[in-house]
Amino acid sequence: MNRNESAGQFEQLVLTAILNLREDAYGVTIHAKVEELAHPKPVSLGAVYVTLDRLEDKGFISSRLSDPTPERGGRAKRCYQLDALGERVLEESGVTAKRMWDVLVDAWGKDWANEWLKELGRGRKRRPYATRSAEGC
Amino acid sequence: MQPAPPRAVERIVEFFIPPACRENVAGDLHERYSNPRDYIFEALTTVPLVVLSRIRRTTDPGVLLMEALLLYLSLFAGAWQFDRPFLYGEWGLFLISLPTVVTLIVLVLEDAYANPQHHSPLKPILQSAFAVAFAFGIQVALTAMDRALTIPRFTLIAGLSVGLVLIATVRLLFPPWVEPPKAG
Asked: Rounded to whole angstroms, how far apart are CA atoms A28 and A15?
């Protein structure tokens, strides 16, 4: 796998957000989802745009403009979707993360793992994912 | 009724967003609007990154380096021809790099802010002419402030004229990227 066919940690978060949002993946929703995934680290909207551009250049995702909507002042959304290469890279990242997790659980014990999973659940509840936009892309 | 950012503020923010992504970025900022202070803060933290990303996407480093070398060498040749003592001076080689840097900054911004829907065969020439004219204007302004920072007039005119022809030719041969080449 060459450098262009791998994704950094933040890129993996953005790819995961796009996968999760499916038809509703655009700037605002992707940012909200990435913030939820990266909790408690703050994520700026600008960083998400920069990463989306880079992922598009790498051929991991593609985008199209939707129809304008009134809640955006009559402007269109740029909707993103995973391409085959992006799906493959995300799959590989997930498998690697799972292998890492298994090693950590093995080294630090199941109690540690359960505590972390509880913490993650609490974090998710603290940050409800919401958007003003009623319809998807 | 949904809260919306003040129209004047939104117009200013839109002005700074490159046209290629103006629609979606301005729309996202509008959708996230809650109050003017947060809107301005978010615009201030978002737009510079959007511009930098656009610069990365529209700038071909190889072509930019070629343009820098050609312009610098044009000014060097101008100084060699018309004012050799200036070139041998303490800051001569550094001072002829200033118009080069200004021209390149303007060219990079012109590419980033170019509207991808407007195509014109004259665009590379007009962009080069504007960038060189801007660098000339900066030199004129510097002359009024401190003559020590400027390069002699004939050197400047000759160097920038030759540089303009060379840069325009490079831009015609290697047009600026609208989108960067895709990987794979």
From this structure: 15
Angstrom distances, CA of residue A66 to CA of A9, A63, B24, B105: 28, 10, 9, 33
Answer yes or no: do B49 and A75 touch at CB < 8 A.
Answer: no
Domain that holds residue B14: 7-57
Interface test with B, best of A14, A45, A80, A135 (most B CBs within 10 A): A45
Specify if B138 maps to a domain.
yes
For residue A44, give the nearest of B10, B27, B46 by CB distance: B46
pLDDT at residue B87 in the model: 83
- The tens digit of pLDDT for each residue in A38-92 reads 888 899 999 999 999 999 999 999 999 998 888 888 899 999 999 999 999 999 9
Q: Are the C-beta atoms of residues A25 and A79 closer than 8 Å to each other?
A: yes
* CATH code of the domain containing A76: 1.10.10.10
pLDDT tens profile A103-114? 999 999 889 888
Total count of domains within chain B: 2
- Structural domain total, chain A: 1
A88 touches chain B (CB under 8 A): no
- Token readout for A85 is 């290469």
User: Across the interface, do A4 and B184 touch by the CB < 8 Å criterion?
Assistant: yes
**For residue B93, is it within any domain?**
yes
- B27 with B71, same domain: the answer is no
Asked, for residue B180, whether it belongs to a domain, the answer is no
The answer to whether A45 contacts B28, with C-beta atoms less than 8 Å apart, is yes
Measured between beta carbons, the chain A residues lying within 8 angstroms of B52 are 50
Question: The pTM is what?
Answer: 0.85
